[in-house]
Amino acid sequence: MRILLLLLPWLELATLIQLGVETDLFTALLYVLATGVLGLLILQRQGVGMFRHLREAQAGRVFGTRLLLDDMAMGLAGLLLMIPGMITDFAALVVLIGPLRRKLARFFTGPQAEPYAPERDSGTRSTIEGNYRRLDD
User: What ranges does the record give for the region Disordered, renumbered to this chain (predicted)?
Assistant: First the structure.
C-alpha cells in the first residue's frame, strides 16, 4: 500500500502526459483546470452543508452518522478531484456515486451493527431507573 502511495504521483503524471499525447496540450490543461474547479465547488458546497448539519445537531435535532459520513465522503471526492491526474479523478467518481460508495464502504468495514434500542414494556408504559447491588455475592 505504501508503495502505491509513493507511485501515485508518478502514475498521475504518466496519465496526464498520455492525455496530452492523445489529444493536445490545451485539452490536457483544460481537463486539469476543470476537474480542479469542480472539486473546489463540491468541497465548498459540502463544507457549507456539513456546518448546517452540525448546527442542526447543536439545536437538538438528531441526524444519523450515515449523513455525516456521506458529507465527508463528498468532501473527499472534492479533494480527490482537485489533485491533478486521472487516477484520483476515477477514485473521486467512485466516491461520488452513492450506491457504489456505500457498497465499497461495506466491503471495507463489514456489516453495520444495528443500534441498541431498549425494549419497552407496552403494558405498563413505565420505566424503572435506579442502582442495584447483588447481596448473594
Answer: 114-137
